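At this stage, I needed to go through a protein sequence along with its fold in token form, as given directly below:
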Amino acid sequence: MKRTFLLTVSIFLFSAITAAQNQSPQKPKIVTAAQANGVYRYYDNEFRILALGHNKLKVQFDGIYHTIAKSVNMGYAMGEATIEGNVATFVPEETQNCKITMTFLQGKLVVKQDGDDATCGFGHNVYSTGTYRKIRGGKPKFQPPI
């Protein structure tokens, strides 16, 4: 009985040690300029992104919120973001407590906004949060705010 127990424990420990040695740490996902560059859209909101090198991106956000009265509230932000791996952090110019985190995935961009619409300098109910689909690759044309 003891012999069977010790044999079972020994096999289990050997298996666990072998499995731990064979696991290599996961490499962080790196986004190339070709993967990042382009135009991303979520409903009427758009991000235009261009890799500048040295872990910097040029970012433009245009957001629209359609009101019940059939008018629109708009938001605009432009500036530089820093990127590490596949996650970029964008703090719009002339804001203090607004941070937009962008995660690059295959053919899409997942965006999370920390700070409300006014804090980020956007119109009422305009938010950048969402999952954006890449609609165009390559160098985007940056446009002045409407």
